[in-house]
TrEMBL record:
Gene3D superfamilies: 2.40.30.170, 2.40.50.100, Helix hairpin bin. One of its GO terms (molecular function) is efflux transmembrane transporter activity. It comes from marine metagenome. GO terms for cellular component: efflux pump complex. The lineage of its organism: unclassified sequences, metagenomes, ecological metagenomes. This is RND efflux pump membrane fusion protein barrel-sandwich domain-containing protein. PANTHER family: HLYD FAMILY OF SECRETION PROTEINS, MULTIDRUG RESISTANCE PROTEIN MDTA.
């Protein structure tokens, strides 16, 4: 037993030594291959050093350069609508869009016209009365002149020739004639004041009638310019209040592209030139591509430094209004970069590992 305890560890050690020798004897030697020169197939082209102006590829969004919120200017029930008064409907300037029941507005207009006619008739009556009073005043003034002349002749006669009673009668006649003239003059002054007052009444009623005419005309809504309708909120039979939103009209002839330029792009595009470069707009719809010309007209009034750039707005040409292009479309924008002097134009794929 004692020899067995010694032989087992010795046997394990001998077995390990034998296995290590066996593995070393059967180990494969690594073959070191020498470096071989690799061959690459390349294409060559002739280049020319000169001034180059590449293009900048951007994205933009179509927006409405001009739009108007159409609101009802009269209260009532919508009795009729235009067949084009639908979302996306195209209308022209002056085209009737909706008609509101004109009954109340027409009755108010008739009432204002009646009041104005009455005021004018009263004015004419006062003018006729004044004309008659002026004619009577002239006659009464003539009678006063006769009475005063008669009194003067009697006063020039010697005392005793004319009785005192006769003199008193002449004085009374002259005094009465003068009183009549003064009364007529006062009446004429009052008439002049009433005529001025009546003219003010006519002006007030005329202004009221003009407002009634405007209210009557406001029962019909017309398109202020050519464009497309959207956000339709009115329909036949709907009750509207004055000021209710009816629809939004987008100017068909003033579509714009809103483009964001980073600070570096903005600086390169406008380097050395204060004018805005022309743009080419591409609108891809499926496999169809539409091309439009555009010109940058303005940039945003305030610059947000947190954006790291600026928005500019380009107006599309007249051909855009004849297409299906609408606000909200995303388009590709091709703009001219700055001019690079003494450079070589190469395709981007020739660069390898930034070299």
């Amino acid at each position: 037993v004692r020899y067995r305890k010694i032989l087992i560890p010795v046997g394990v050690v001998l077995f390990s030594v034998l296995m290590a020798g066996l593995l070393r004897a059967t180990k494969q030697q690594a073959v070191i291959n020498p470096d071989e020169e690799r061959v690459w197939s390349v294409e060559t082209t002739s280049v020319r050093i000169g001034n180059e102006q590449p293009n900048v590829h951007l994205f933009g969004e179509i927006i409405a350069g001009r739009q108007a919120n159409l609101r009802s200017l009269s209260a009532g029930v919508v009795v009729s609508v235009n067949s084009n008064f639908i979302d996306g409907g195209k209308v022209v300037k002056g085209e009737k869009l909706i008609t509101i029941d004109p009954f109340i507005a027409a009755r108010k207009l008739l009432e204002r016209e009646a009041l104005l006619s009455e005021a004018r008739a009263r004015y004419e009556e006062l003018l006729v009365t004044r004309s008659s009073d002026l004619a009577l005043l002239a006659e009464e003034q003539r009678q006063l002149d006769i009475a005063q002349s008669d009194l003067s002749r009697y006063e020039e006669l010697e005392s005793g020739v004319v009785s005192k009673q006769k003199m008193d009668e002449k004085r009374l006649a002259a005094s009465q004639a003068k009183g009549v003239v003064l009364a007529r003059q006062q009446r004429a002054s009052v008439l002049n004041t009433k005529i001025e007052q009546q003219q003010a009444v006519i002006d007030r009623y005329d202004a009221s009638r003009e407002r009634a005419v405007e209210n009557f005309e406001n029962t019909q809504m017309y398109a202020p310019f050519d464009g497309y309708l959207t956000d339709i909120k009115a329909a036949q039979g709907m009750q509207l209040k004055s000021g209710d939103f009816v629809a939004r009209l987008i100017d068909a002839d003033r579509l714009e592209v809103q483009i964001f330029l980073s600070n570096s792009q903005f600086g390169r595009m406008f380097a050395g030139s204060p004018s805005f470069p022309p743009l080419e707009i591409k609108w891809n719809v499926g496999e169809t591509e539409f091309l439009f010309d555009a010109t940058i007209e303005r940039m945003e009034s305030q610059i947000d430094s947190s954006l790291g750039g600026v928005h500019v707005y380009a107006r599309l040409g007249s051909e855009a209004s004849k297409s299906f292009l609408r606000p909200g479309a995303i388009v590709n924008v091709l703009a001219q970069d700055r001019v690079y002097e003494k450079v070589v134009r190469l395709p981007e794929e020739v660069l390898y590992d930034e070299d």
